[in-house]
Design goal:
The structure is a single chain. By secondary structure, the chain is an alpha/beta fold. It is 40% helix and 22% strand. The chain has 19 helices and 21 strands. The strands form four sheets. Strands 16-11-15-13-18-19-17-21-20 form a nine-stranded antiparallel beta sheet. Strands 1-2-10-7-8-9 form a six-stranded mixed beta sheet, with helices on both faces. The longest helix is centred in the N-terminal third of the chain and has 16 residues.
């Protein structure tokens, strides 16, 4: 579709009107819901594009564009590239219209998105895995376009695609819940932000619209600052639906005028927004879908009393990724910090540390392996109600003369690399236990069952988000007789814990690297 660059906004507004007549052949309007948060802050409304047929807004643009194909173009078929959601939109349109589609997807594309493409497209789609990124998949698709003559359906850099996305803004305007003081719109290639901002500004000229990008994928921000499209050297893939190296040319021309500001959000901030959506609306968002809300939460005080709009643009997230996000967040409303603390390598010192410095905080991760004869450096990830509580821990450590290091975000801690020197062990035993998630459970086990009877040589514990936390504990004894005696004395279940198993000799040898 040819576009006059001098009249692009008017052309886009006109095409959004025309798109009204096409997109609802393929899907239905999605709801706009209020997200209520405790305490002061803005009035937040969420456009639930996760409730569409493909669990994403992308059906709108893809279907609108493919509905414009002439019979001759439809006969040639279509080709596209997508990280997942646009591919589903193309698949839905291909099956509905009876058009063959080849879809190039990056090799790391989540299986849930690939399966959804096949579900929506059936025999009309073919998935071709190509490259490690969206840009590499797009290069392969463009080469296919040249060789085969198929029609390329761009994920965002197309007037009809942007117009299709704009229909979600049309539904917002017609919902009766406006006008809104502000809108926060996520940006990948820019098609969503361009279409939605154009329509919202048409009806509510005073609305303040902020484009939101991930810190490691801010291609639109770079383009607006440079005055032209900029290709990023690297792109963070956590928010995979917006992981685009370079903003689209047409979206850039729109967004540089229709957006009032651009803000970046971090991956942890996006993860927290996913949690807020779950707790507030009982819906699951993919990372890109929660970016707008992440920016709102980041500016919650500044937006107090405002009526704010965000778009939950998709819910196509790999189940395993969802688990990792939940695990990384810990408890809601809690601050966390990872500390490595030096203590003497002798019985009772670990318990003393817990008693003297860690009272009032929750230990959500505990990593330790014996690596020296006279000193130990256990690593704890602590959570408190706020940062002041954790600062209090540091004050206690300093007052009692403990040497400590802040390892928050350390790579070896994240990957749970726990060293253990087998040559320093005499007669070890390893126990797999479940601790009930309540204050004092770990402390009570060490005080009542272990203190004075064995040396702690290994500890691998991580809060699981369940009512229990799982731990693998290594104990070292002066003799086999003392080891066997303690193992016989420990009940399978006690106050705050459950003993799941005592590891056999072969497993212990693998763990310690001994023969």
């Amino acid at each position: 579709m040819e576009v006059d660059p001098t009249d692009l906004p008017r052309s886009l507004r006109q095409e959004i009107l025309f798109a009204r007549e096409r997109v609802y052949r393929f899907g239905q309007a999605t709801p706009l819901e209020r997200l209520k948060l405790p305490g002061p802050g803005p009035e937040i409304w969420v456009k639930r594009e996760d409730r569409s047929a493909i669990k994403s807004y992308k059906w709108r643009g893809a279907c609108n564009r493919m509905a414009l194909l002439t019979p001759q173009e439809a006969q040639r078929g279509v080709v596209t590239a997508s990280a997942g959601n646009h591919a589903q939109g193309v698949a839905l349109a291909a099956r509905t219209l009876g058009i063959k589609a080849r879809i190039y997807m990056p090799l790391p594309t989540p299986k849930v998105k690939q399966a959804a493409v096949l579900h929506h497209g059936g025999e009309f789609v073919e998935i071709i895995s190509s490259g490690d990124s969206y840009d590499e998949a797009m290069q392969a698709a463009r080469e296919d376009e040249k060789q085969s003559g198929a029609i390329y359906v761009h994920a965002y850099d197309d007037l009809a695609v942007m117009a299709g996305q704009g229909t979600l803004a049309d539904e917002i305007v017609l919902s009766g819940h406006g006008p809104f003081d502000a809108a926060y719109l996520q940006i990948g290639g820019g098609g969503l932000a361009a279409g939605v901002s154009t329509w919202l500004k048409t009806y509510w000229p005073e609305i303040h619209i902020t484009g939101v990008e991930g810190i490691g994928q801010a291609s639109m921000k770079a383009a607006i600052e440079a005055g032209h499209e900029v290709a990023l050297d690297q792109v963070d893939l956590f928010c995979d639906g917006t992981a685009v190296r370079q903003a689209g040319s047409l979206p850039f021309q729109i967004c540089r005028d229709s957006l009032d500001s651009i803000e970046t959000v971090s991956n942890p901030e996006v993860g927290q927004a996913i949690r807020v959506l779950w707790e507030g609306l009982r819906c699951i968002s993919e990372p890109s879908g929660a970016m707008g809300l992440a920016a709102v939460l980041k500016n919650r005080e500044k937006l107090d009393g405002k009526r704010v709009l965000v778009v939950l643009c998709g819910a196509n997230i790999d189940f395993l990724k969802l688990g990792l996000i939940a695990q990384s967040l810990g408890s809601a409303g809690q601050s966390s910090r990872t500390l490595q603390v030096q203590i003497p390598e002798r019985p009772g010192t670990m318990l003393n540390l817990l008693d003297s410095c860690f009272s009032g905080v929750n230990i959500v991760d505990f990593q330790y392996g014996k690596t020296a004869e006279n000193e130990a450096w256990p690593i704890f990830t602590l959570q408190g109600a706020d940062s002041a509580v954790l600062d209090g821990v540091l004050t206690k450590l300093n007052a009692q003369g403990f040497d400590w290091r802040d390892l928050t975000g350390a790579v070896d801690v994240s990957f749970r690399s726990i060293p253990l020197r087998s040559d320093l062990l005499e007669h070890p035993a390893f126990l797999r236990l479940d601790f009930y998630e309540r204050p004092g459970a770990l402390h009570d086990f060490l005080a009542q069952r272990i203190q004075g009877k064995a040396n702690l040589c290994y500890f691998n514990y991580q809060q699981s988000g369940e009512r229990i936390g799982r731990a693998l504990i290594g104990l070292d004894f002066p003799s086999t007789a003392e080891r066997d005696a303690l193992l016989q004395q420990i009940p399978n279940q006690g106050e705050g814990y459950r003993l799941c198993e005592v590891l056999d000799d072969a497993t212990c040898q693998r763990l310690t690297g001994s023969n």
